Sequence to fold (415 residues):
Amino acid sequence: MKSIILAAGEGERLRPLTYTKPKCMLPVAGKPILEHVLLAVRDAGFRQAVIVVKYKQDRITSYFGDGSKMGMQLEYVTQGSKYGTAAAFATAEQLVNDDFLGIAGDVICESADIRALVDAHRKHDGLMTVGLKAVEVKEQYGIAEVHDDMITGFAEKPKESKSNLANASIYAFDAKAMAEMAKITPSSRGEYEVTDMIKSGRAHAYELKGYWLDMGVPWQLLDANRYLLEKMCDKREGRVENCTVKGKLIIEKGARVFDSYIQGPVFIGADSSVGPHAYLREGTSIGRGCDISDSSTIKNSILMDGVNAKHLTYIGDSIVGERVNFGAATQVANYRFDEGTIKSLVKGAVVDTGKTKLGVVVGDDTKTGVLSCVMPGKKIGSNCWIGAGVVVENDVPDDTAIFVEQKLKTISRKK
Fold:
């Protein structure tokens, strides 16, 4: 069996992070999401994968190449003008002539569940086996009703449902499924949906037993990051000098941390420098080539490559794009006075994140001035300037500069 991995999506709900890269290439625990997916697929026994690409596809193909570094054989196909999951799978039709595994390129799951799903599929002659996962908020997912291991009903984001089993975007398909996909007509959204096959009455169900997360909004990256860091083993290839380290520390070759306090799990990427007097708290991933120093604190955050936070900066529960530079004493607020859950704008709609702690999401190449501050749950786009003393209380679009205008009053002190 081959696997087909869907990685063509743009990830608009993850803006501004996806302004410069596809969502499957956003890093969690030191690796792109797609790399974690591929590792899970490989560890489930698959050595051949077809990756369906489109949006900024060069970022994917140049990073993974032929897959040999991962012990896999990778092929790529570009999704055409048709949209939707069925259209994406159908793009790889010429490269698959047997049963196959299908999985979204932005889900974190366990390899054991992938193996078990495929084993369950091999025990029957149905069209497909669908991975399902019990969820608390049914309104965010496609929900399946199951009877005797068969999916008997399916609804997208229902307000009411007898079931809480969400479509996990992990499938085992029979070889004839490709021909069935060719018969699918566009949905009301104008997309060709695999869910039409799930509704056909010929889909079996497998309920995932382990961890699963579909990352559709920025704060879910923090959840996945924390989970993956907890799974990693302490590994110190870089230099750790005169530090207090509690919990797991994963530090890559060429990185250095000195005269600082680390409360793991924490990941520090290659060629990064941390210290002196930095405080890295649990759930933090520092990318490659970063500089964190001089009494700066990073807590439960993802900092991508090339980030600088050198002087008295606080960054909590945040996701920071590449090459962002924080001016001295920049402060990220991550908690409301009323202790309520934090709201965030997603594609123009206000969404309750369900989190009481959430900082800022920052796009690539943005700079903040000294003594600037960001309120909880706000987003700052790519290539922005946030001037000295600015308090960011609303989302900032890409390519925007914001400055404070002062009105000075001068008084003579001569007697």
Notes: The chain is about 15% helix and 30% strand. The longest helix spans residues 218-231. The helical segments are 33-43, 57-64, 85-91, 111-122, 177-181, 195-198, 218-231. The first strand starts at residue 2 and ends at 7.
